[in-house]
Specification:
Distance between the termini: 66 Å
Number of domains: 3
Strand content: 5-15%
Family: Belongs to the acyl-CoA dehydrogenase family.
CATH architecture of the largest domain: Up-down Bundle
Protein name: Acyl-CoA dehydrogenase family protein
Keywords: FAD, Flavoprotein, Oxidoreductase
CATH superfamily of the largest domain: Butyryl-CoA Dehydrogenase, subunit A, domain 3
Order of helices and strands: HHHHHEEEEEEEHHHHHH
Cofactor: FAD
CATH class of the largest domain: Mainly Alpha
Structural class: alpha+beta
Number of strands: 7
Helix content: 40-55%
């Protein structure tokens, strides 16, 4: 297997290197966290180039357009891709989240309609989960879906927020409440919705970094077709949780290689400006390097779940671990830059981006507090944290 994996790495390097040195050179190491709205048109073209080379959806079964790579081979692909400077994937939400969810839970019609566009890099997806009062507490979603008795389609009303790259996407999957009066995990529906339609408004959110990769998405009677419900009405929570399991899949190893690139930039900067000669900075750089190795070991340990998005209990610790490590790396970047980090010369440099964006790492996709509750309750089986009692009406 080791020779097979090394052969895969060489094959990818032989394909990737000349393209990132040539027509797609400006994309090298671009489009990662804090830089996701960069070069949108060019990165969509890159997705189609990947597809032409047979490098999209590499972990999908061959019958759905993938390469059917093993877990070990997928790890090698994602690590080598990031190491060589492969740009952040515009198709990540489609390839890594909704695609595997449709393979596991979708109808044959849904698979035939949506999977080819993801593989080809011609249709792009975003995630409609968080709302103003339902971020970490996802079960509190209030977006409503009402079925039209004549057509069987669903009319959607509500708001989603922090929707990554909605302005660049063609489709959105939406968790909504389809049973009036239902609460928590009950009465939810998982819908596939076209964004370019009446009743959908997308508003960019401008951030500290000056970028706007996140958006608010408003629904005012927008339509989800009857055949675009994944699972049955009422099964939305089950589908949504399975999708989050896929989110913690092997692509996380690629994320860590992006982190390694950032760490190397930080080391190079410290050597250049003298920060590496300061003992406390040297110690923190060493600690960051060791921490990244621990993240990789733990990520490899957790990747043995089933095909339905269910992961081992260890996976529940992963988001908490990487987000705190990366936030500390951002703070270290600011400390290494020193006063120079307070000056913007035209646009933010990469380490300034790392510092500003990493402030959000321990908030989005579940705050630290929520992550610790998940670890305690679902992984360790400890008693649930007391929840406030909501008085009944009347």
């Amino acid at each position: 297997m080791s020779e097979q994996i090394e052969s895969l790495r060489r094959e990818l390097a032989d394909w990737l290197t000349p393209r990132l040195a040539g027509p797609f050179g400006q994309l090298r190491h671009r489009g990662g966290p804090g830089d996701e709205d960069a070069l949108g048109v060019e990165r969509k073209e890159w997705e189609q180039e990947l597809a032409r080379g047979g490098w999209s959806c590499v972990g999908w079964p061959t019958e759905h357009g993938g390469r059917g790579l093993s877990i070990a081979e997928q790890v090698a692909f994602h690590e080598e891709y990031a190491r060589l400077g492969g740009p952040g994937r515009m198709g990540h939400i489609g390839e890594g989240l909704i695609g595997p969810t449709l393979i596991a839970f979708g109808t044959e019609e849904q698979k035939q309609r949506f999977l080819p566009g993801i593989v080809a890099g011609t249709e792009f997806w975003c995630q409609g989960y968080s709302e103003p009062n339902a971020g970490s507490d996802l079960a509190n979603v209030q977006t409503r879906a009402v079925r039209d008795p004549d057509t069987g389609h669903w009319r959607v009303h509500g708001q989603k927020v922090w929707t990554s790259l909605a302005h660049e996407s063609d489709w959105i999957f939406v968790l909504a409440r389809c049973e009036p009066g239902s609460q928590g995990h009950q009465g939810l529906i998982f819908l596939l919705m076209k964004l370019d339609q009446p009743g959908v408004e997308i508003r960019p959110i401008r951030q500290l970094t000056g970028t706007s990769e996140f958006n608010e998405v408003f629904f005012d009677g927008a339509v989800a077709e009857a055949g675009h419900v994944v699972g049955a009405p009422g099964d939305g929570w089950k589908i949504a949780m399975a999708l989050l399991g896929f989110e913690r899949g092997v692509s996380t190893l690629g994320q860590q290689m992006h982190f390694a690139h950032e760490l190397q930039l930080l080391v190079d900067t410290a050597r250049k400006n003298g920060g590496a000669k300061i003992p406390v900075i040297r110690a923190r750089l060493a600690e960051a390097a060791l921490g990244l190795k621990v993240l990789r070991a733990n990520a490899l340990r957790m990747m043995s779940g089933a095909d339905d998005g269910q992961l081992r209990r260890e996976a529940l610790s992963y988001k908490y671990a990487w987000s705190n490590w990366h936030r500390e790396l951002g703070q270290l970047a600011a400390d290494v830059l020193g006063p120079d980090g307070d000056v913007i010369d035209g646009e933010l440099n990469r380490l300034q981006q790392v510092y500003l964006f990493s402030r959000s790492d321990t908030i989005y996709a579940g705050t630290n507090e929520i992550q610790l509750n998940l670890i305690a309750e679902r992984a360790l089986g400890l008693p649930r944290e007391p929840r406030p009692v909501v008085p009944s009406k009347g």
